[in-house]
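Practice record 12: protein with glutathione.
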Amino acid sequence: MSPTITAFKQSPDRGRGLARDMRVRWALEEVGQAYEVRLVSFSEMKEPAHRALHPFGQIPTYEEGDLVLFESGSIILHIAEHHAGLLPADAHARARAITWMFAALNTVEPPILELTNARLLEGDKPWSTDRLPLVQDRVRHRLGELSTRLGRTDWLDGAFSAGDLLMVAVLLRLRASGILDEYPNLSAYVARGEARPAYKRAFAAQLAVFTGHPPAG
Ligand SMILES: N[C@@H](CCC(=O)N[C@@H](CS)C(=O)NCC(=O)O)C(=O)O
């Protein structure tokens, strides 16, 4: 039975790949697992029926038989643990790939989200112009460290893994700011992620929700 995920009925980014169902779609495409999508509006997300799946009234959720999950990282870990392709077989390499999943969500995504919030939600506040450079510098600090670790390698630790999937998904949220371009190896890393056929299929499926046109092929 195919799992069902939830996604925005009206995505704020107009289906450009930033909503977090994208990373779950990408993981499912990487492992070749077909899936269903249930679209929810902002008001539906806050209703009891959806909150029974997701206590914080958000997307994505994941339903598979009687299993219900929320949190994109947990969903992707579940997918990666039940299918080949997103985690290495070697126990230590697997633990390191999972470490990168946590690093993406817990160390790299928070300053990026802070920057998004500073721009979108606080841009009209009188203190915003003083605060924004501080927030941008916190992002640069983290990216500098990540860039040093990645160096000239294609992926964070050997072959592409769920750690890379989440890291690329998180870094993509920075593209509009221009900050990612300051780190050529990270830009190239993100581009490598976007070039993966599974990413392209997931992106096309998410965009189709916005355009109303199903992806070709
Ligand atoms: N930590 C959660 C964050 C989920 C989240 O923020 N989802 C956003 C969409 S990308 C959402 O539903 N926003 C609407 C809202 O919070 O009301 C995850 O990784 O799944």
